[in-house]
Structure prediction request, 445 residues.
Amino acid sequence: MTAALLSGLVLLIFIIASAAIVFDNMMEEADFVLAERSETLITQFDAKAPSTKDLKNDKFSAPLNAELAEVRLVRYTSPDMDWTTKDSKWKIDWIQDEDWLKKKKRTVWNGLDVWRTYAAKTHGDHGILLAMDLYEIRREVWRMCKTFLSALPLTLLFVGIGGWWTARRIVKPLDTLATAMESVADGDLTERLELTHARDLIDRLSRIFNEMTRRLQSSFRQANRFSSDASHELRTPLTILRGQLEQALQKAEGDHAVELAGLLDQTERLRGIINGLLLLSRSDAGKLAIGSDELDLSKLASDVVQDFESALSESGITVESDIAPELKLRGDPGLLRQALGNLISNAEKFNLPENGRISIKLEENGDEIWLSVENTGTPIAPDQTRDVFRRFFRASGDRESPKAPGTGLGLSIVEAVAEAHGGRSWCKPLSATNRFYLAFPKGEV
Prediction:
């Protein structure tokens, strides 16, 4: 559309410029005809002085652009005579001036008529002013403009179609590249572009893109494999260490028992990190298996809230829940329970030191089921609402409460569980609270 408009503007400028050039050339032709006629009259009047009747009748036609244009004598002066035409069209002030001979050529508008005048001085101190009607010039220029203007819409149509076709050919490879890059941004590192072997810039970009995604896919697989293998390998010695600490704790007394209890707590935390990394590595590899059982999400959410109520009450946090009944979907109850538990644990960690509050809500919203957990506390910065779902991310100012240190993987697991169930997760900071959402499509996952 833009190309057609620009082309139309260029063509319009071309028409105007062409008309100006043609008009200028015809004006030169008119000046040449008038100059020749003036020389003829000068020679004639030098030989014999004209009478008023001769001057009045001095009208003739001259060739102009293969047509005949009217030429007339408008004024004549000599030592013995000063004659000006009586035609009402020529009642123009400058014709009566004494210096009318100073400007040799003029273009004069008489109403709607346009004339070209030519002033000359004879050898006998005589002055002569001739005028030519430019009707033929105007008609020819207007005919040319109409021809161009009538062809303008068809020209614009062809230009528009040609521009659209050319743009499509140019943009299509870029559109394909953009689509492939979006797929990579969504986590699909198997995307590859077809090479044209044209050895142009698009082909070069395609080669670079394919090589980039190949290396990324290889690195990503190695990282996932390492994370998964390391998690598996660490679970066994960690389980053994946990069992030995529990046995030692049963026999220990006093300060030694306190130290062993602290070590056991750190072991549990380390076990949580390893399990979380294993879950996330499976999610990254697209191997996070979810159950397909039909479950009552309303009952599951109520059970999780009930499990946390006692601990939250001891921390001085008030729990409010608004759970719509009988909201069902197909999914994995263990993963969904873990996701909701992580959201509530996160809400507890970042709550107010005193008089804190957590609000849990489950509702239908269009074609989705929305689960939200809102807690009082310092609002998250708007530019960090997506970063909080990154692994081991810490918000500016270190919002984490020292009373409940976390692994830094809780919200990442929440996001992975949501995506595994075909849903999504996001955060919405409010004036004095933070609200986290999980959204699942209704029906089968």
Summary: The first helix runs from residue 2 to 47.
